[in-house]
Amino acid sequence: MSESLPGATAPRMTQRQVLEALSGLILGMFVSMLASTVVSSSLPVIIHDLDGNQTAFTWVVTAMLLTTAISTPIWGKLADLTNRKVLYQLAIVIFVLATAAAGFSQNPEMLIAFRAVQGIGAGGLAALSQVLMADIISPRERGRYMGLFGAVMAVATIGGPLLGGVITDAWGWRWNFFVALPVAILALIMVQATLHVPARPKKKTSIDYLGIVLLSVAVSLLLVWVSNAGTTTTGDWADLGNNDWWSLTTVLMVGGAILGILLFIVVELRSKEPLVPLTLFRNRTFTLSVIASIATGIAMFGASVFLSQYMQLARGATPTEAGLMTIPMIGGLLVASIVVGALITRTGRWKPYLVVGAVLLIAGSYLLSTIHYDTDFFLVSVYMFALGAGVGMTMQNLVLVVQNTTRPEEIGVASSGVTFFRSLGGTIGVSVMGAALAAKVIDLVAERKEDITTAIMSLGDKAQYWGEQLQSGSLPKVAEMPEALRVVFEDVYATGISHSFLIAVPFAVLSLIAIVFLPNKPLTSMTTTERLQASEADFATVSVPEAMEVLTPTGSIRTVETPRRSDDD
Questions:
Q1: pLDDT category of residue 453 using cuts at 50, 70 and 90
Q2: 20 to 30 A Cα–Cα from 518, which one of 38, 189, 440, 534?
C-alpha cells in the first residue's frame, strides 16, 4: 500500500469545480442578506405598528449586529477545530428559524430578542464563508470570486428592500420574515451536494466560555449606555428632559464596560484556546486591517439603516419607493466589488484599490452629512453611489489581505477576527448614530415646538388625533401626516439623519490612514489547504535530514546526509 509523501496535494480544482463548490456558499450568503435586507425598507412601518420609538428602531438593528459581532470569533474558532461544512449548515438553520420566529413578534422587545438570535446565525455565515473560500481558492484567484460574492450580496441588497416594500404594501410586513424559508431549504441542499472541503485533522475542542461572557457583557454595557444617554426618558415628544451623558448611570455602565474589556484581555492572554488570540495583533497587516474594517462596518451598516429612514421620514417615500431610492448605493457596491475583484485577480495588485475605496468612504460619508429633505435627489444618488463604491472596494478585500499573511492554522480565527471588528464597528456606529439622531430630533422638535403646535391647531377635527399620535412617542408615519405637519417633521428628520452621518467621517479618515500603512505584500497563489500541507512538508524535511549522493575520488557513489538549511541561515 502506497503512502502519500509529505506535502503531497490534491489536484488543483478547475474553475467549474470551484463554482460548483461555491454555489452552496453563495446561496447561503444570499439567504442571509435577503432575510436581513428585506426588512430594512419596512422597518419604520414595523416599529410604528409595534408602538416602538427611535431607540427601539436602533435596537432592532443593533441587537442583531451585536450578536453577529460576538458570535463571529466563536464560529471562527470552531472552524479551526471542527467540521466547517456542518458549522455552515448549522448557521443557516439558526439564522432562518430565528428570522421566521421574528415574524410573529407582538412588541418591539420580542422582535429585538429574535433579531439577537438571528445575529448568531449571521455571524456564522459571515465568518465561515470566508474561511471555506480560503480552503479551496488561493488569495490571488480569490479576487474574482469575492467579486462574485459582492455581486450576489448586491443583488440581495437591491432586491431585498424592493421585495420587502412590495410585500409590506401588499400583504403586510410580517410576510417579510417568511420569504427566506424556501431559499434556505434550497441552500442547505446545495451546500450538502456541492461543497466538498478537504478533510482536516481532528483537534480537541476547547471553547473560551469566560472570554465569551466578558466580551458580551462589555460590549452590551457600552451599547446600552450609548443608546440611552442623551435621549428622552419617556419617549414623549412633550417631555424633552434628557438623560445626562455624565451621570452615575454613565459611570457604572462605562466603568463596567472598561473593566469587562480589561478582564477579557487578561483571560485571552492566559487562555489555551483564546476567543480572539491577541498574538494576531503582532501581525501588522491584521492590526491595520482591523482598524480599517471598523470604519467600513460603520459606513455599511449605518448607511443601510439610516438611508431607508431618510427616504421614508424625510422624503415621504413608501417602503417600496424607499427600496428603489437606495439603488444608487447598492449599484456603487455592485460595480466596485465586481470590477475591483477582477482587477486584483488580473494584476495581483490590491493596495491602490483599497486606498481609493477609503477615500470614497470619506467623501460619501461627508456628502451624506450635508443632505436636507429637499436636496436634489440626483445629488443624493451620487453621494450614495460614492459610499457604496467605497464599501465595495474595502469590505471583502481587507479580509483577503489578512488571509494572505496569516498562518494557515489560524485562517479561521484571523478571518473571523476582521469580520468581528467590522461587525463590532458597525454595531457601535449604528448605536452612536442612532443615539445622535434621537437626541438631535428631540432638540429640533423643541426648537420647532411653536411650528408643530400651530400646524396641529390648523387641522380642525383631526388636531386631537395628531396631538395624541405625537404624544405617544412612537416613531411617526411621516408620509401619512397632513401637509403642514409633514413638512416640519421631514425637515427635522432630514437634519437629524444628515447630522448622524457626520459621525462616520473621522472613522473613515482613520481607515484611510490604516490602509496607507498596510504592508504591500504580493498575493500568494496557494490555497489554505496547500499552504498547510506545504508547512507540514517543511516540518518533515527539517525533522529528517536530507540525503544526497556524492561521487568519491575512486569513482564509487556514497550517500551523505546533510542537515537542511534553516530560513535564518
A1: confident
A2: 534
**Which phi and psi angles does 562 have, rounded to 5°?**
-130, 135
- How many CB atoms neighbour CB 17 within 10 A? 14
User: What confidence tens digit (pLDDT) does each residue in 511-535 have?
Assistant: 899 999 988 887 666 555 565 555 5
User: Residue 199 has what pLDDT?
Assistant: 62
Q: Are 354 and 195 in contact (CB under 8 A)?
A: no
The Cα–Cα gap between 340 and 345 comes to 9
How far out from the chain centre does Cα 74 lie?
A: 15
Name residue, grid cell 455592485: 334
Distance between CA 425 and CA 300 in Å, rounded?
Answer: 10
Mean model confidence pLDDT for the chain = 75
Query: CA-to-CA distance for 406 and 339, rounded, in angstroms?
Result: 26
| Closest of 36, 14, 54, 39 to residue 445, by C-alpha | 54
Q: Let me know: does 393 contact 340? Beta carbons within 8 Å.
A: yes
78-to-73, 168, 192, 265 alpha-carbon distances in Å:
8, 38, 19, 20
Q: Would you state the cell numbers that stand for residue 122, as one nine-digit string?
A: 449571521
Beta-carbon contacts of residue 11 (< 8 Å; ≥ 6 apart): none
3-state percent breakdown (helix, strand, coil) of the chain, nearest 5: 75, 0, 25
Residue 526, amino acid: M
What local confidence, expressed as pLDDT, does residue 565 receive? 41
Asked if the model's pLDDT at residue 551 lies above 50, the reply is: no
